[in-house]
Amino acid sequence: MKTLAFNINIHKYFLLKKYRFFDIGNDNFYFDEQSTGSAVEASERNCLKPALEMLLALARRYKRRFKFSITISGFALQLIEQYCPNTLELLKQLAHTNAVEFVASPYNHSLAGVNDISEFKKQVGVSVSEIQRLFNVTPETLQNTDLIYTDSIGVAAYEMGFKSVLVQPEERSLEVKGTDYLYFHPTAQRLKIITQNRKYSILFENALKDGKLFAPDYLVEQLGNNASGGDILFASLNCEYLDGTKYNNRDVLLYVKSFVENVLDSKRFKFDTPSSALQKFQPIAPYKLPDPVPGLNYPVYLAPWLGNDLQREAFSKLNALKDKVKLGVNSTLQQIWQRLQCSDYFFFMSDGYLDGTQQNIVTNPFGTPYNAFITYMNIIGDFERRVNLAIDNSNIKQLSDKQIADSIKYYQSRIKELKQEYSKRSALC
Amino acid sequence: MRVLMFGWEFPPHISGGLGTACKGIVDALGMRGDTSLVFVAPKIFGDEQSVNTVFAGADRYAKTHKKILDRNIRIVLPQPSPEQKITNQDELVKYVAESDKLIYIETASYLHPYLQPGQIERILMRKNIPPEKVYVDPDGRLVTIENGRKKPISVSIGDTVDNNTQKPAKFEFTGGYTSDIFTETGMFARIGGKIANQHNFDVIHAHDWLTYEAGIAAKKATGKPLVVHVHATEYDRTGNHPNPQVFAIEKDGMEQADAVITVSNLTRDIVIDKYGIDPDKVFAIYNGVDFKPDRRKYKKPDGEKLVTFLGRITYQKGPRYFIEAAFKVLKQLRNVRFVMAGGGDMFNQMVTAAARLGISDRFHFTDFLNHDEVRHLLAVSDIYVMPSVQEPFGIAPLEAVRCNVPVIISKQSGVAEVLKHAIKVDYNDVDAIADAIHALIEYPAISKHIVKAAQRELRSLKWKESAKQISAVYNALCNNQNTEI
To answer: What are the residues facing B2 on neighbouring strands?
Structure first.
């Protein structure tokens, strides 16, 4: 009997205001708190609450047989705690049933794992302690933002005590056996790697989206067709897909419920959570995926976030501010800095929104990638101005030794940059 | 497939989209090899000198210019082969009838695609120029000869505006005019019927309302199917205050037509909603773009960016939103200049507006530009803005893209349907226009990306593709007619 590890992703982010360049220097507020709040409330009404209620009912009815995992971003937790007490209560009850495993992820849903492992660890740490505080459980499994993975993320996960990582597999790294097997990290060998069956995950989403495929048993049949010879079929579903109002109020929840019951009836699959499943199987091979080389183009699997010039420019502008922010700016700026790292802003700059290849169900709040880029860059421009101001105003005597050391480091690197620029210019003259 | 087409002169004689579109369609249909064309264009002949004016667009087809059927019609023929000797008019007519290449016929007429009823007479009257002394020079300008020297006449619609009051471009629809432009379209229609009887063809194709009557006359004379091509409607030209007589001619043309081609879905909707035309016979076929960029390197002041508005300065093109956006940008950035290129009835008003806002040192006007000047301007431009209030298609932004200039276009334009990689704004959202200009100047990544991606998109926007779809419409009509018989 094969194991079906089902993961539901819940993520919310802060909507940006329409921030024009003439707002730079005049407007300190970047986030549209009101729209963010109403978007989260709408999501609770149409999707989160009914979906979690159904999952809770299933978990209670099929005790120990229906199990799944939830990955919830830190921002989503924060917004749900603020706007949706009922949903938070449902999540807590789900945690009580022991049918659900909570998977840790970077609090900010950021791309820090791509280029800043220490920041990544920090964000995961915040997320873990929030899950402990709210649900009284300690996550044993880690999933980076949108299943992005490289070897260093694996090492970080191992160092933080996680037993396994959920990843979006790269074809070349799977060439030995394919998906659906348990893998291990090449150096941190005790860390298990569970790879997503992408084909089936997409099929599942399409079945919910597309009325024609909306036939009973279809998903169960396809489950058999798409499983390779492996032990664990890991499928990941964005919670937004469970919103029936997006597809003419079709009863997607009833559909999912009958899918779960069909799987429970079938003799070929059983549900399990990642951390429980990996105790039952042996990993078959190392899963290697080297980190992106700094200075070169980002690899293809990062294309949805860092695939075009706009995304790379915005990301590098964001990262250029990293050292300055670390110098110790006030908590308001720190909070903004945390929010601006959210990967969604980069996702909305993707060309897929123009040529129709973007599969994601989330509509682009900016309308077009160009508007997303312009707004984000204007905000970064104002944020940089404020950070510079804060650094200039900070009194060196009030700084801690660590901050002074950071300052020295920052100014040294800045001097180096300026020297390079100078020599470049004098070479031109 | 043989086509009788009523259209407009090709560039460089006529500036603006209509002549360009006619040329694109004619060239691409000619390239298909399965289509022959008799192309009839109204032309202001003027005196004998102008007969010597070589029609530049026809150079590709004709090295000799054989004339003249009668005083009002001139034929530009393709080069006859050596064995075809044409010595008299009968032979000429025969040659024309048998020729399977493009035949270009010009007819004497004051029709001009961007004129409104009564305008040309008023312009000439006010300037005290007798109409028979007017002709078109090689740059496409209307000129008159005074004391043996050429003197240009501005035919921009701006001439109808009272220069003292600076009233905006609401056209004078007094209902008092009865002749002029309608007499001209009627005359053109009679010539159209006459030409139709002299040629063999399968389908009639008429471009914009001034030629619809000619198309209808040709249809009545021969019973062949009629296609009318809508490049703009009276609603577009007048900012939703249509002249009832023009509207009636347009509606009649569309109703009598067997198929209506529009340049975008935006225009298709207008044709269906406002003219009540059966949606089943209205087809949106996008224009192509065929533009040779000026690749020369021009010197520019260090680090200065040039933001360009290019088009007639009329209400329809939304020039005031461009000026207002420029004002907002200039408050923050100084390394940028703006240029408004073109003439039109709001020209004086715009110059005054720029002066009043105190940006005249950075905001420049060029008035009417000829084809080469346009190419030069696009070569030095960094950003192109088209804030049109209503634009059936808009080829000009595509020409800018061809010159590697990123474009900001209004959502109220047909071209927005086909060009994905552009910044799209509501025409009156000045903040958004200003913000986009700022972003294109300050964040080089976005300019780079738009130019690269839009250039890729442009490859699929070819006249060849438009001609293919037009040809399919012809074929459907002709097949239909055969089965009905």
So the answer is: B36
Q: Tell me whether residue B160 is in a domain.
A: no
Distance, in Å, from the CA atom of B254 to the CA atom of B271, rounded to the nearest integer, reads 8
- Kindly report the nearest CA distance between residue A209 and chain B, in angstroms: 25
| φ, ψ for residue B407, nearest 5 deg | -120, 145
Rg of chain A over Cα atoms, rounded to whole angstroms, equals: 23
Average pLDDT over residues A340-363: 80
Structural tokens at position B386: 């088209």
Residues of chain A with pLDDT > 70, as a percent, come to 93
CATH number where B430 lies: 3.40.50.2000
In B, what residues contact A, Cβ < 8 A?
328, 331-332, 420-421, 423-424, 431-432, 434-436, 438-439, 442-446, 448-450, 452-453
More confident call, A310 vs B53: A310
Question: Is the domain of B236 the same as that of B371?
Answer: no
Is residue B438 domain-shared with residue B364, that is, in the same domain? yes
pLDDT of residue B161: 33
Burial of B158-187, coded b for 16+ CB within 10 Å and e otherwise, reads bbbbeeeeeeebebbbeeebeebbbebbeb
- B419–chain A nearest CA distance, Å: 10
**Angle, helices A218-226/A252-265, rounded to nearest 10 degrees:** 50
H or E segment and range at residue A70: strand A68-72
Instruction: For A170-223, write each residue's pLDDT tens digit.
Output: 877 776 677 788 899 999 889 999 999 888 888 888 888 776 666 667 777 777
Question: pLDDT, tens digit, for every residue of B399-455?
Answer: 999 999 999 999 999 999 999 999 999 999 999 999 999 999 999 999 999 999 999
Sketch the domain layout of chain A as residue ranges. 2-286, 300-394
Q: Are residues B328 and B422 in the same domain?
A: yes
Distance from CA of B296 to the nearest CA of A (A): 24
Q: What is the mean pLDDT of each run of 10 residues along chain B (485 residues)?
A: 81 62 84 80 44 27 34 48 55 53 58 51 61 52 64 46 34 32 73 77 90 90 93 84 86 95 95 94 91 81 88 89 95 92 87 90 86 88 94 91 95 93 94 95 93 89 91 89 53
Cα(B375)–Cα(B301) distance, integer angstroms: 19
Assigned CATH for A2-286: 3.20.110.20
Residue B70: φ, ψ to 5°: -150, -170
Q: Going by C-beta distance under 8 Å and a sequence separation of 6 or more, which residues neighbour residue B233? A: B242, B250, B267, B270, B271, B274, B275, B392
Asked if B318 and B249 sit in the same domain, the reply is no
* Chain B residues touching residue A308 (CB < 8 angstroms): 449
DSSP codes of every residue in A325-353: HHTT--HHHHHHHHHHTBTHHHHTT-THH
pLDDT at B109: 54
Measure A288 CA to nearest chain B CA, in Å.
33
The answer to whether the predicted template modeling score (pTM) of the entire model surpasses 0.80 is no
Give the one of B424, B435, B448 whose C-beta lies nearest to A309's C-beta.
B448
Q: How far apart are alpha carbons B121 and B130 in whole angstroms? A: 9
Residues contacting B437, CB < 8 A, separation 6+: B307, B325, B326, B329, B336, B383, B385, B408
Residues of B in contact with A354 (CB under 8 A): 420-421, 453
b vs e for B126-139, b when ≥16 Cβ sit within 10 Å of the residue's Cβ? Answer: eeebeeeebbbeee
| Total domains present in chain B | 2
Residue A355 contacts B where some CB pair is shorter than 8 Å:
yes
Q: How high is the ipTM of this complex?
A: 0.75
CB contact, 8 Å: A20 with chain B? yes
Tell me if B156 is assigned to some domain.
Answer: no
Task: Tell whether B334 and B435 lie within a shared domain.
Answer: yes
> Quick check: A60 contacting B, CB < 8 Å?
no
The residue-averaged pLDDT of A279-286 equals: 88
* B313 and B387 together in one domain: yes
